[in-house]
Design goal:
Blueprint (H helix, E strand, L loop, with lengths): L5 H17 L2 H5 L2 E8 L9 E2 L1 H15 L2 E10 L4 E10 L4 E11 L5 E8 L10 E2 L21
Parallel strand pairs: 1-6, 5-7
Antiparallel strand pairs: 1-2, 3-4, 4-5, 5-6
Helix pairs in contact: 1-3
């Protein structure tokens, strides 16, 4: 059982992201209930990931094929409801693009991730298909990452 305090739930999310960045299936699976589900926007190429193992494999493939690197940019936790929402950046160095978005997390009573619902900042400017973020938002001034952090893989 994991801590279900606000700090404990945030720590689980950050460990999950560490596992994603390390392409560590065991670390990812260790943060989730076996039947966890990761939902994506309709039409996303990978579809829904059903089960902790499928989630881990999906991110392992993303690291392998896209060079994926994720950052957790903001976190809000409601420990009493066993829920959290984060803001993230997903860098895809092999494609020269990055996505920004939010995810809603639902945790089990054991403090493990049961459900993730991803929402993307969708580009409406067809002239810049490599940047998926809010228009006119001061990412630089507010301290968001502008380049992918270095990963030792």
């Amino acid at each position: 059982m994991r801590e279900t305090t606000a700090a404990g739930l945030e720590a689980t999310i950050r460990e999950y992201f560490d596992g994603c960045n390390e392409a560590s299936a065991e670390k990812i699976v260790g943060c989730m209930e076996p039947d966890a589900v990761h939902y994506f926007p309709a039409g996303a190429p990978q579809g829904t990931f059903w089960g902790a193992r499928a989630i881990a494999e999906g991110w392992r493939v993303a690291v392998q094929n896209l060079g994926s690197i994720w950052t957790v940019d903001r976190v809000l936790v409601d420990a009493a409801r066993l829920e959290a929402v984060i803001e993230w950046t997903h860098f895809k160095p092999k494609q020269g693009i990055h996505l920004r978005g939010d995810e809603w997390y639902i945790f089990s009573e054991r403090g493990l991730i049961r459900e993730i619902r991803a929402y993307y900042a969708a580009p409406s400017d067809a002239s810049n298909p490599h940047t998926h973020e809010l228009g006119d938002y001061d990412y630089r001034g507010l301290g968001y990452p502008l380049t992918a952090p270095k990963m030792n893989r």
